[in-house]
Amino acid sequence: MARDAREVLARLAEDRVDHRFKGLPPDADGLTVGELAAQRRNLFTGGFATPVLALSAERLEHNLRLMEAYAARHGLAFAPHGKTSMAPQLFHRQIEHGAWGITLAVPHQVRVARAFGVRRVFLANELVDAAALRWISAELDADPDFRLVCYADSVRGVELMDTALKGASRPLDVVVELAAGEGARTGARTEAGCAAVADAVAAAETLRLVGVAGYEGEVPQADPGRVRAWLRRLVSLAVEFDKAGRFAAADEIVVSAGGSAWFDTVAEVFAEVPELSLPVLKLLRSGAYVSHDDGHYRKLTPFNRVPEEGALEPAFRLWTQVVSRPSPGQAFVNAGKRDAAYDLHLPFAQVVRPQGGGPERPATGISVTALSDQHAWLRTAPEAELEVGDWLGLGLSHPCTSFDKWPLIPVAEADGTVVDYIRTFF
Questions:
Q1: 378 has which bridge partners?
Q2: Is 325 within 8 Å of 387 (Cβ atoms)?
Q3: Which side of the chain, N or C, has fewer Cβ within a 10 Å radius?
Q4: Across 153-287, where does the E strand assignment appear?
């Protein structure tokens, strides 16, 4: 990590703890985040107020190391998608664990990354906002070490980029986005359409064509065969563009794909990329791995298909407290839609910590059936042991809608010792 990045990250520890940060100990108000971290309080006995989201220190480190090793083993560069966490501290931990840079989606996210010293950004969107383009151009002019690569999927988009960037001293690097099929999200739908976009980029003085990209997670009715076929189309597009001399202005050829559900197939097909006229940057963009989850990605992760390569570990747990037990078959805890991801699955009841002390136990016979704004509805079977005041630990699904609800997240070791706090910027 560059010295200036370390300095700006260190300033996060100087922020004062107050009402902005839910779940933190009320008696910590006025302390800096760094001072609170130095106290190494216990998540369960140190005054933290429920609900409180925590990240496992050990599992976070495990996931960072696992994906670093995976990318290296398969000869892939790695630009994990930062929209998952929007946490500059995690961006830099990912970079320290071998990431080429950080993938982002919109200009605000790029501004956050730049404010914290990220020097390589892959913007997985066509960027046509004139104000944002002018700001990015100024960043490129001011910092020769800064590189940004963005999508283009239409001739019109290329024209808007070129108009906004007139007078720029450095060209903006562009990859042509190939759509994953009809009905998919963004991207040119056909190879002919991609070629038209590529030619428009080549004709624009302010842009430089450097590769091709897309997102295999949008392949209709995705299965290994369909994903593999689309990825081979993407590779073939890069080969044809190279034969046609479309990468003449580039220093390397970028071929990029990879969400968090099919990166094994990406690795397989990218291993087939032939030798081209320039070095090839095979860029994987999976982002959800950093925290993983207990639902969506736990089910879809490629490590289920290739267990010999390791396994990601869910690092999130949302700690809640039982506030009502109106009947033997029902209970309520004090966390709801404001606190827990719910766009893909409801939270999962995992463990109970008795209010009066005693060992943590499995949440046997307890399930979450619904969420209100500030309550989770629980169904409790006859064998469920649950009392008002007990703490209930919930697993979450879909990290992209978990991080965004918590501006400051404790990082806790297995015994509950809080060793750090992760700041998010959504």
A1: 331, 368
A2: yes
A3: N
A4: 172-177, 207-213, 253-257, 280-284
Cβ 111 vs Cβ 148: under 8 Å: no
Q: Is 93 in contact with 64 (CB distance < 8 Å)?
A: yes
d(CA 361, CA 334): 20
Cis peptide before 51 (omega within 30 of 0): yes
The pTM of this model reads 0.96
Amino acid in position 172: L
**CB-CB contact of 291 with 402 (8 Å):** yes
Residue 211 and residue 201: Cα distance in Å, rounded? 11
38-52 exposure pattern, b = at least 16 Cβ within 10 A, e = fewer: eeebebbebebebbb
Structure-token pair, residue 247: 């990468």
| pLDDT tens digit at each of 426 positions of the chain | 666 888 999 999 999 999 999 999 999 999 999 999 999 999 999 999 999 999 999 999 999 999 999 999 999 999 999 999 999 999 999 999 999 999 999 999 999 999 999 999 999 999 999 999 999 999 999 999 999 999 999 999 999 999 999 999 999 999 999 999 888 899 999 999 999 999 999 999 999 999 999 999 999 999 999 999 999 999 999 999 999 999 999 999 999 999 999 999 999 999 999 999 999 999 999 999 999 999 999 999 999 999 999 999 999 999 999 999 999 999 999 999 999 999 999 999 999 999 988 899 999 999 999 999 999 999 999 989 899 999 999 999 999 999 999 999 999 999 999 999 999 999
